[in-house]
Design a protein that fits this description.
Elements lengths: L1 E8 L5 H12 L7 E8 L5 E3 L12 H7 L1 E8 L2 E6 L6 E5 L1 E4 L10 H9 L8 H8 L1 H10 L7 E5 H6 L1 H8 L6 E5 L9 E3 L2 H11 L5 E6 L4 E10 L4 E10 L7 H5 L16 E3 L5 H18 L4 E10 L4 E8 L17 H20 L20 H12 L2
Parallel strand pairs: 1-2, 1-7
Antiparallel strand pairs: 2-3, 3-4, 4-5, 5-6, 8-11, 9-10, 9-11, 12-13, 12-15, 13-14, 15-16
Length: about 400
């Protein structure tokens, strides 16, 4: 049985959303194929494991969680991937064969976690380090997609320091786009820190809110006659497939955090993640636009060298029938499973496919050349006793 370490949580403003997505997934994995090992990362970066972390109720009392869960570290030992307890009396708590990050936002989805997993050598589900980093940065995405001639809205961007040093110059640059505009932190998701500005006063307020979350700020045009649609892409650059397209419905100027995860209702205190959003499946956009959205999604996926299960969001001007690619979510809320069910792929099958894609990616990666047998240090067998070593040591000493 394959031991799957499901990693979630982390130091991110989307911490709670990650918990929801991970618990949903763990309860849908095929337990005849996989042993599920929950790995929860707290907001202060501590790692915990324990079977009761599969239940959402566990996270209502963090004191009890930390008391009864095992505080662990993940590392490689003798070819195995070990979750070891911390403290004076250390012991192996669990072994895992593959990591399945179900994380959202800064410090976990942005390549940081993927870099650690790649460093220790464990196979993992989802994008590699570079695609993960790009996928978390809305500005990087637009720069790459623009170079590939994919349709993107007009935009500009700036650093928080540029605004703080010369706010009028930044505002002047933004106003070339013309109001209304959308202001976004570059590296956040779940609509956190995003605002629509219709005039200068609202723009200033939106920027000052956004820079509390990020040091890079994106400002882009508002698409008129807007229809928002999303599509999921699963696979890698060798083989991929697109889901049904959803049309997102909201009464706000943009899809908010509340639209996505709270659903604008007080009837239930338990969030269902992205299932809380109001949507129409399939989107009512006609065959021509449906095909165009799917074609652009495939090109965008390949341009970023993505892998796993992503959701790509689009903006459509319904009057001009023009499609714009908005952004990609490399590990979408609820893993966008609801977009695959209408085409006959249930959540359990989707999770199985994602693990299989990860294994294929891993096998291909380890078969590439990453190092050489030649040891360039072999000529320095005597350490600093070699002539070049002594010369370097003397140079260092002379600088003191």
């Amino acid at each position: 049985m394959i031991k799957v370490g499901v990693i979630f949580g982390g130091e991110s403003v989307e911490h709670e959303v990650s918990i929801i997505s991970a618990v949903q997934a763990m309860n849908k994995m095929d337990t005849e194929k996989y042993e599920i090992v929950p790995i929860y990362i707290t907001k202060d970066g501590e790692w915990y494991t324990g079977d009761f972390l599969k239940e959402i109720e566990t996270f209502q009392d963090m004191h009890l969680l930390k008391k009864y869960a095992k505080n662990v570290v993940l590392y490689k030992r003798h070819g195995s991937y070990i979750l070891q307890s911390k403290g004076f009396f250390r012991s192996v708590v669990k072994e895992i064969d593959i990591a399945f990050p179900i994380v959202h936002g800064t410090n976990v989805e942005d390549g940081a976690l993927q870099g650690y997993l790649k460093t220790i050598g464990i196979p993992f589900v989802g994008p590699d380090v570079c695609p993960a980093a790009i996928g978390q940065d809305k500005i990087f995405q637009k720069q790459i997609w623009g170079s590939e001639d994919l349709p993107i809205p007009r935009y500009t961007w700036f650093f928080d320091s540029e605004y703080e040093e010369n706010p009028e110059e930044v505002i002047k640059k933004v106003e070339k786009i013309k109001y209304p505009v959308i202001v976004k932190p570059a590296t956040l998701g779940s609509s956190v820190g995003i605002s629509v500005a219709h005039k200068k006063e609202e723009l200033i307020e939106a920027i000052e809110d956004a820079i509390t979350y990020d040091n890079k700020i994106l400002v882009e045009e508002v698409i008129e006659n807007l229809v928002e649609v999303n599509v999921s892409v699963v696979g890698n650059h060798d083989s991929l497939d697109t889901s049904v397209i959803e049309q997102v419905l909201t009464g706000n100027d943009l899809l908010t955090y509340e639209d996505k995860y709270i659903g604008g209702t007080k009837k239930s205190s338990a969030s269902k993640g992205m299932l809380s959003a109001t949507r129409k499946i399939p989107a009512d956009i006609g065959d021509k636009l449906t095909n165009e959205v799917k074609d652009v999604a495939i090109r965008a996926f390949k341009a970023l060298n993505l892998s796993g299960d992503v959701r790509i969001d689009f903006l459509i001007d319904s009057k001009k029938k023009k499609v714009y690619i908005n952004e990609v979510n490399t590990i979408p809320g609820s893993l966008a499973f609801y977009l695959w069910e209408p085409v006959g792929k249930d959540y359990t099958e989707l999770l199985d496919e994602l693990i299989n894609v990860a294994v294929k990616d891993y096998k291909k990666r380890v078969n590439k050349t990453h190092s050489f047998d030649t040891n360039i240090l072999s000529g320095f067998a005597n350490g600093l006793k070699g002539s070049k070593g002594m010369k370097g040591a003397k140079e260092v000493k002379s600088l003191k």
